[in-house]
């Protein structure tokens, strides 16, 4: 999609000389085959599809004309509207409390996050996909985010996102930075204990929601690697 937007933007500027710059954004929406009943069997329809609303790949580009040249002012790839919940293995204990703190400590609570992840390349041309080994697909970013979420004992959303960013930069050294927008939609507890069961009862949280916005850079990756080495030595 990044290569397509680059092609369309450059073609637009080459066609209309009176235009100095163009900004384009593309969204790659997923559709899944819908079920149908045929010959007394449930099958996948070749004609009807469900719109998958959980996540979408997004790409944006800003091109500017400089004389006879067309330069890339900015370019970003991202995956948006990713919603993940981890039902166990999250703790929120030991935080600083004062007279305004009403949030209870919980050593094992569900964590439900809304997440947008954007990434920028060291070499902007790598985003075009002309060298497949240097192109970073949104599906790979999604899988890394899910895997890190599964692996970690999560003390906070900030810690989780930081670890996801470091893992992405570690996996893809051709990237310059990873950017995050996240929201905390963790459910409110209704029933704390169910006799004879591990489960609890939750309900949708009331607004407002916690919101985080930050970037993880290669410098952050170096710092994180140093900390992990020190921890192993101890």
From TrEMBL:
<keyword id="KW-0560">Oxidoreductase</keyword>
<comment type="function">
    <text>Catalyzes the oxidation of uric acid to 5-hydroxyisourate, which is further processed to form (S)-allantoin.</text>
</comment>
<comment type="similarity">
    <text>Belongs to the uricase family.</text>
</comment>
<comment type="pathway">
    <text>Purine metabolism; urate degradation; (S)-allantoin from urate: step 1/3.</text>
</comment>
<keyword id="KW-0659">Purine metabolism</keyword>
<dbReference type="InterPro" id="IPR002042">
    <property type="entry name" value="Uricase"/>
</dbReference>
<protein>
    <recommendedName>
        <fullName>Uricase</fullName>
        <ecNumber>1.7.3.3</ecNumber>
    </recommendedName>
</protein>
<dbReference type="Pfam" id="PF01014">
    <property type="entry name" value="Uricase"/>
</dbReference>
